[in-house]
Amino acid sequence: MESSELEKYIINVFNKLHSIPEIAFEEFQTSAYIASQLKELDYEVIEKVGGTGVIGILDSGSPGPVLAVRADMDALEFEKDGKTYNVHACGHDAHSSMVLGLAKQVKQTGINKGKLYVVFQPAEEGLFGAAKMIQSGMLAEVEEMLGIHLRPIQEARLGQATPALVHGASNRVDISVKGLNAHGARPHLGINAVDAAVAIVNGLNAIKADPSVSHSVKVTSFKGGTDTFNLIPSAAKLVVDVRAQNNEVMEDILEKVKLAVEYGARSLGAQAQIDFIRGVPAADYCHELTNLARKAIVKELGESLEIITTPGGEDFHFYSRDLGIKTGYIGLGADLTPGLHHPDMSFDPSALIKGTNILFHMVKSKLG
Ligand SMILES: [Zn+2]
Ligand SMILES: [Zn+2]
Asked: How confident is the model at residue 272 (pLDDT cuts 50, 70, 90)?
């Protein structure tokens, strides 16, 4: 296919998706449009995967690797003058356009072995979409998966790309503490939940983990007591934000958080429980796919950036953790300003064809 023809297609798709930004699990028009494009390209199409997800499958008919390329579809909600509105401020419309362009390009040239899955996932921003796709069971035969995300201008310029964008793990931990009410004049008859919560906070702040792996534990919300000044409070609530650059350190820290919560409360005769822990695992990439990405980037752009480490999270990493899929993830420069998640985010759309071509080189070297 003429590159300019493919580029035109990708830009058209992008303009369409950009005009219909929809938030997590509400990607109805977006997924319907993507499914219709995939049907036109003669892919086997599975719709309503994990809610609003779409999967397109191209089968060579010969044995070989089952390779998936995943795009996310959701936009973000903003507020102005009391009104909410949606914007594709994280570039998920760009990712979907690149992967649809890839589907078209691969269909045109064909594959000689294995299968290609193009996966359009809902709700990346809510960090629930990947889990829903996994629960659907539709990705059971996938062995390898690639992802791609636009990068802010500070990380990569137009014409640059990194072969691995290494996200950290992050978790939110919600804790509730239970004490016993008493009169302020008789504190020895009660159990002060605020005191117990403070003991927990001190324990959390004293947590130590491998200093060679960047990490942090911090209390981001603390609520305790009532407006009644002479009442020993019986309840407190804490929220903790935990970050770690790899999954081992995250697990280590979460174990210590559990101990700090349990023993901090018990040391004052109170009870505490973790109401829930929610988050994303860290990137755990396959070296072979990272090397393949580097080669593809060099082929397309002349040279490749180094691997980029970011404390940001991505629910893409549930695919490797929960399904054992080997993964790779490209960060693509697009002169994107002022930043991701900014309502005025914009970038140079000539980056899209570059991203599609990088993915195409990788798919071709895997599936022939
Ligand atoms: Zn985002
Ligand atoms: Zn994003």
From this structure: very high
